[in-house]
Structures are given as structure tokens and as C-alpha cells.
Amino acid sequence: MTITTLRQRLLALEAEPPKAWRVTGAHARPNLHGLLRYPAMMVPCMQGDIIDVILDHKPGACRVLDPFVGSGTVMTEALVRDLDFTGVDINPLAALVCEAKAAIDAGADVEGAAQIVLSTLRRDVCESIEVEFPGRAKWFDDESAVKFSTLRRAIIQVGDKGARKVMWTVFAETVRLCSNSRTSTYKLHIRALGDRVGADRVLQTFETNLRQSLMRVREYRALIDARGDKRPSVRIICDDARKAALDWPETDHQLLVTSPPYGDNQTTIPYGQFSYLAMRWIPQEDLPGAGTYKLMANTNALDSVSLGGTVRGAEEKEACVRAASPHFDAFVREAERTDRKRAVRKVSSFISDFTDALTHMRASSSGTAHWVLTTGNRTAAGLTVPFDAICKDIVAGLGGKPIAALRRELPSKRMPSRNSQGVMITTETTTVVEFS
Ligand SMILES: C[S@@+](CC[C@H](N)C(=O)[O-])C[C@H]1O[C@@H](n2cnc3c(N)ncnc32)[C@H](O)[C@@H]1O
Description:
Blueprint: H1 3-15, H2 44-57, E1 63-66, H3 73-79, E2 84-89, H4 92-105, H5 110-123, H6 136-139, H7 142-156, H8 161-178, H9 202-223, E3 234-238, H10 241-244, E4 255-258, H11 271-281, H12 292-295, H13 301-305, H14 314-324, H15 326-335, H16 341-363, E5 369-376, E6 379-380, E7 383-384, H17 387-397, E8 401-409, E9 427-435
Parallel strand pairs: 1-2, 1-4, 2-3, 4-5
Antiparallel strand pairs: 5-9, 6-7, 8-9
Helix pairs in contact: 1-2, 2-3, 4-8, 5-7, 5-8, 5-9, 7-8, 8-9, 8-11, 14-15, 14-16
This protein binds S-adenosylmethionine (SAM).
């Protein structure tokens, strides 16, 4: 397939998006995609369709990289296509969920683990609280904490590490649904008294989640049933994408498919706050990554080490990125007319960190590669940050040739795109680039 045909096929997808791209709710997240509701998840079938078109163009491609892997949407789409996969995320909970999905793919005995957990739950009459952390009583009253402790003790009984990670994923979804933090926002935000979930519902919610998860595992296994003996290889790295890229071999991946954060976590989507409560319950040894305890020191620790987490050195960073991106330069010139200096510094810092990450990715994949980047344009300092255009500038500076940009209206109910200023991101752009 020539590059022109590739472009035409991608643009045809944009002109007439398959119906499945517009499905919302539970049906939009089949099989492993629905194990945990993580912020800003991608539309799985859209990423899968784009991967298929690129594979038709480049049949030899075999390893996919997602440097901001989140809950592993791209990973699942890669694995069902028997493609090897590398995923990176700075968030230990995200990496744990990906490891759980990899364990399912590798055939971990999830049903056996569920039996162990359920039978331990039935026998356990202990009323102690197993973990304490600042604010524990605010987010989990004593009665709920006793129930979560019972769940924690039961999961620890599962000997197989991979299957246990699947149980922690079900646990994390139960924390999301039953803690005193609202489910309508990803920030830690206390529920109104009348909206709290009673302690008597914790175990029941876990068991319901577990049953649904087992169905999802079966659905996934049916998809990979015809695979044969050779399994794709999976590597999940819990680290800063800028550092992780230094470690893997050159020409390691032929396809990079990702949706980076839209801006710094504090003012866009606080992935760290979203993950904090579940991570506090999961034993350190089951959470991926080194120094995870530092990332849980407080509710903001993880968000402040994510891309754009610090404004230190923002001025110098800004100058470099302005030189590399005419669209960023135009944004800063416009923003300088406002008095929202801190907001502009946050954007500069984020764009600079993101540029670093992409530069490292490119350095580690010096051969032919295709990149698929899904971005949204947030608002900062009262202005739209043209992240899609900035991203294209950065990639062009690295030698990438833009092939197509697919714009997609987001269904209005898609909450993850709401940023701290209450502004909805209404469209997202998927940019496809070729490095030759
Ligand atoms: C838009 S989300 C990815 C969501 C994912 N596509 C999915 O469907 O679940 C962006 C991810 O980037 C991660 N992230 C932020 N800063 C990072 C960094 N410096 N290195 C690696 N990952 C980072 C966040 O933890 C978050 O999981």
C-alpha cells in the first residue's frame, strides 16, 4: 500500500466513522477494556481500526509502544492482534492494571484466584482495619475500612502474582465505586452525606465486579482462542516515559500508538488523585515501580511528578519549545496579553516535558515507524491550547511526515475530558505520522 492509499484509507475512516466509534457506555468497553474505569480512556475499536490500516500498509510491524499506557486500551488492541507490546506509565495503578491484563493474556488462573478470594471472604470474621493513612477516616469510615480490610486479606491469599493483580484491579474498581470520593470527578472530592455508599454494600459490590470481570476474561479468551502456542511478548514499565525510553533497544517498536495527557495533571485530569485511594490499600510489593511509596506521600505527589508537574525552569523551557513550535509560539504571544502568567507557565512546562518525552521516543526508535497520537485541546488562561497543532510541529521537528489527522467529536457525556476550569473538550484529533 502506498502512502497515498494509507492517507486515503485513514481519511475515509474520518469521513465515515464506523458506528462502533460512536457507541458509549458499557458496550463501548468490551472484554478487558471494561475492567477498571480509568480517566480519559480511548475508544478501543477506533485505535484497533487505525492499527489495522497501518498494518495493511506495513505488514512486518510487530511491536507496539504506548508511552502513556494508562489502563491499557492500546495494549489490549495490540494483544488481540498478536502484536508484541511495550507500555509505559508513571502511575503505579495504571501499570498494575496493565500487568493484570497481561497476566490474563498469558493464561493466569483468574477463576482459581476468584475461588480463593470468595472462600476466604466467607470464612473471615476479623474486624480489624489493615491500613492507615492520612485522611483514611475521611475517605473510608471505620465500618467500610473493616470491609476493605477483609477484601485485602482475602486477595493477599492468592499465590499467583498475575492473578492477584487481576484481583487488585477488581478491588480498585470497588474503591472507586464505594469510597467517600465522588465518582463524577477524578479529583478527590468528598461525597454529600446522602450519596455515601454504606459499608454493607462493599463486599457485594466487589463480588458483582468480580463476576463481571470473569465474564470479561472469558470474552477476551474467546478472542485469542485461535492464537496457537506463540504468545505476544509484553513489557510494562512503571516510570517516567522520558526515562524509560533510554533503556530499550533501538528500532524496538514499529508502531507508537498513544493518547498523552492533555496538559499537566493538576489543572487537567488528576490521574494521581484518581489512583491515590486504591494505591493506599494495595501492598507495596504488588504495586509496580520503584519508590512507589514516595508517589503516595500525599494526594498530589504523583500528579506533581507527571508531565508538566513542576513549573521550575518554565521560562527557559518555554523559549526552546517556542522555537520548535510555531503554534505554541502563537499561543504564548496571545496569552501574554492576559495576566494569567501561572497558567501559561504550566502549559509551557507541560509542552516542554512532552517534547522531551517524544524526543526520547524517537531517539529510541530510529528506524521506520508509524506514530498515532490522540490529543485534545484544553483551555488555559482563557484560551484554547492548540495541542493537536503543537504536537504536529514537534513531530515534524523530529523528522516525522504527517499522513492524516482524524478529528472526532466527543460524545457530550464523556466526563474525562472536563478540565479543572469546567471546560469540556469537545473534539479530539488523532494524528498519524510516518518516520522513514
Ligand atoms: C490520557 S491518559 C492515557 C489513557 C489510556 N490511553 C487509556 O485508554 O487508558 C495519559 C497517561 O499518561 C500518564 N503520564 C503522565 N505523565 C507521565 C510521564 N511523565 N511518563 C509516563 N506516563 C505519564 C498518566 O499517568 C496517564 O495514565
